[in-house]
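Input record (one chain):
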Amino acid sequence: MSKEAKLKEEVTERLDTVEVKPPPSTTSHHIIEPFAYLTSTTTEAKYKNVLLILNQSFSIDLFSIWRHCELVVCADGGANRLYNFFKDETLRSKYIPNYIVGDFDSLTDNVKEYYKAKGAKIIPQKTQYSTDFQKAIKCIQLHYLLEKDNQDWPEINDDSGLDETWEKVFHAKSDIDIRVYALSAIGGRFDQTIQSINQLYILHQQEPNLQLFFITEFDILFLLYKGTNYVKYPSRSIFYRPKDSIPTCGLLPLSDRSVVLSSDGLKYDVKNWTSKMTGNVSSSNRVSGEDGFIVTCSDDILINIEIDL
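The corresponding structure, as predicted from the sequence alone:
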């Protein structure tokens, strides 16, 4: 029997509020700040926070996210959703995306022309070998790489120009850390939700400089990475206001592997706990850490944290 198999699985119930010390700076760990879109108030802090609007309805406070992001990208019909979100033209004209990208099978002509006239860069990409979500991610990556090299956008063809530009100009993986907050990736058609979750795993493998967060009306979803993860925030009150309970969360093993978990700062902390689909799943757990918590995992795993403002 292997040494790993001999380790005892444990579950410990914690108090509703606990203080968790960050991992020592001398040890290797990932720092994840999922709620930077609620706390980044200075220009420097907002740098490389990106709002990505996809083509599903949303009913969250758009303004609270927008003002903490320096770049806004709409994927195809996401521009329609943004346009229709506003009932007042004066207000609509103040919230102009930087880019609209996609195959434009959903984007209406009047919305495209409106945002084009307001200064948004319109990037049609007809190829069906990538989704509008993937095209938007490529657009975001290229924006920051071009900015880093003080280059203007080159002429790109309307079929697969983003991919071709990437291959011609940028051969190595990007080293620019970017946080992308995506609206409407979860919900709507179930197949699209599964594809979004699939992209969380794939993008971390292919483009590890990206931290991708999916925001819904109820929660935020993101990956915890193989190794030790310190999820930090100034206070739970930033994203969860009720005083008679603490936010729920789930550790969801939605990849093709089982994951061994140990945590510090959850209501039900685990140690050497194996999680997999058709096996143990830590759903309906809660966040006890007042300003952060730690999860160590043997492989990437999805986490969701409840939001209630």
